[in-house]
Amino acid sequence: MTGGGLLVAGTTSDAGKSVVTAGICRWLVRQGVKVAPFKAQNMSLNSFVTREGAEIGRAQAMQAQACRVEPTALMNPVLLKPGGDQSSQVVLMGKPVGEMSARGYHGGRQQQLLGTVLDCLTQLRGTYDAVICEGAGSPAEINLRRTDIVNMGVARNAGLPVLVVGDIDRGGVFASFFGTVALLPPADQELVAGFLVNKFRGDVSLLEPGIDMLHGLTGRRTYGVLPFQHGLGIDEEDGLRVSLRGTVRESVVAPPVGEDVLRVAVCAVPLMSNFTDVDALAAEPGVVVRFVDRPEELADADLVVVPGTRGTVKALEWLRERGLANAIVRRVAEGRPVLGICGGFQILGEHIEDEVESRRGHVDGLGVLPVRVRFAREKTLTRPVGKALGEHVEGYEIHHGVAEIAGGEAFISDDKGHSLDGCRVGQTWGTHWHGSLESDGFRRAFLREVAAAAGRRFVPAADTSFAALREEQLDRLGDLIEQHADTDALWRLIESGAPQGLPFIPPGAPA
């Protein structure tokens, strides 16, 4: 028997599809429903490694956590990782299969993947009571409809009802809802069941006349109005939502435990990947995290982080052009803490041999760690476990670069003290492991080292659990759906599909 399903589409990118999907998943699992997330095609530099060594979008990993299930490649069969304005690495069923231009992908390759996408969805629907699917961008991108495998293309082939999410905080939500439906061909319109308003501020009664008029114009109901809430943007996929000089999250954390705060500056390198690595730092009371793009912004930082990037050589050049490279080298000479993660670790090394990513051959690094990096064609995709600073640490690796370490201290070791990854020289640290700072004991030990080196009277909170904070956020998303959406109507939609007889809204688009 095939399980129920729903496709959460949006009027635009960043309308809130990922968090709404996660919220519906968490609401369902709390009702005892066995549920899984699904996104046929994701474009993101924020990725994750599953237990079986498959690379998928971090948003789908987060949604799997909302479902309380282990993420798998079935949940995100196609992942596109931009490498520049014109091309992306195509990751199929968790493994990279090559680079492709946007024209080449949409010109034929994408449609060839529809069978794989539908097979994955069928497998999930055969295993779970419900599968909550997330679309990409807008379903009304009529220039891409012919080859679409993530919005109406998958909805029509799988017979899924569609809920369209609109961000009212941006304005124009009613026009966006109406226009989205009106630009779809009749067969697609039949599956669009209705709308969900996201990020509303104020008195809902003032919105009700517009909701009633929208129903009259389209014959489709609004399934809920979700209020604006701070701090719900977990594991975004499409880029850095916050300003370069803004905070990582808007959520309020507890006051510092010690007398001082700890200031963390994250270099906002091009093609930044897995910037979620610093979320665990931002969750610590008394740690202030900001993204920076000027050397003077490093002056008062107690820790500088050079994050992961899809373009290591490009990021290195950017750091040099901005004057950030020299500022980092000066920090190292002064014994001030610097942490490089994945591509950032490679940048801190002596040199890079890259015939794979940038194809630039030999490139000198910043030379502050005794590390030489060679880019291999095979991508490393693992979920390692080790010890660092006397504490248990877990992470995940996603990189082509292979590091040859010729000195310094091991950063992460196994239980017998043998080096597993990374390097430390004084107060300069580097590791390929993403997610390591989510290990609470290790994060506290690392922050104590940073505070001591920076001369700050900062004390890590003894009871901060990043996993518990993540669960609290997911429960808040579930609460939003439970309290502000018509959950009975949503369940009927998931179980029985789109209502019959939904009216066609002209002009439509060619089928």
TrEMBL record:
Keywords: Cobalamin biosynthesis, Glutamine amidotransferase. One of its GO terms (biological process) is cobalamin biosynthetic process. Pathway: Cofactor biosynthesis; adenosylcobalamin biosynthesis. Catalyzes amidations at positions B, D, E, and G on adenosylcobyrinic A,C-diamide. NH(2) groups are provided by glutamine, and one molecule of ATP is hydrogenolyzed for each amidation. Belongs to the CobB/CobQ family. CobQ subfamily. One of its GO terms (molecular function) is catalytic activity. It holds the Pfam family GATase_3. This is Cobyric acid synthase. Residues 263-440 form the CobB/CobQ-like glutamine amidotransferase domain. InterPro entries: Class_I_gatase-like, CobQ/CobB/MinD/ParA_Nub-bd_dom, CobQ_GATase1, CobQ_N, CobQ_synth, GATase_3, P-loop_NTPase. The keyword Ribonucleoprotein does not apply.
